[in-house]
Write a structure and sequence with these properties.
The protein has 3 helices and 5 strands, in the order ααβββββα. By secondary structure, the protein is of the alpha+beta class. It is about 40% helix and about 25% strand. Strands 1-2-5 form a 3-stranded antiparallel sheet. The chain is elongated and about 60 Å long. It has a single domain, classed as IHF-like DNA-binding proteins (HU Protein, Chain A).
């Protein structure tokens, strides 16, 4: 599912009178907040959904350049991780309607 499909589905579920551009602005604010918190190494939790948190990936000491075979050291990186809540896990694994 892409962002435009999420916006359309939210528009149908919430209120068709609300403009899709307004819903898209709200969705962008949520995404920007998650990114901002990850940049400063903080977690973002959405209750009954899950938790987004930055995860540090250590650099490798003996990585190799595939073209030259030269041994190089890579830098540490930050990746995003997601841990779903128990309620979300139960709803996904339960058969039937997700609503």
């Amino acid at each position: 599912m892409i962002k435009s499909e999420i916006v359309s589905r939210l528009s149908d579920k919430i209120n068709p009178k609300i403009k899709k551009t307004e819903i898209e602005k709200i969705l962008n604010i949520i995404f920007k907040t998650i990114i901002y918190e990850a940049k400063y190494k903080k977690a973002t939790e959405i209750r009954k959904f899950g938790r987004f948190f930055p995860k540090k990936i250590k650099g490798k000491l003996n990585a190799r350049n595939p073209r030259t075979g030269e041994s190089i050291k890579t830098k540490d990186k930050i990746s995003m991780a997601f841990k779903m809540s128990k309620e979300l896990r139960n709803r996904i694994n339960k058969k039937g309607n997700l609503d």
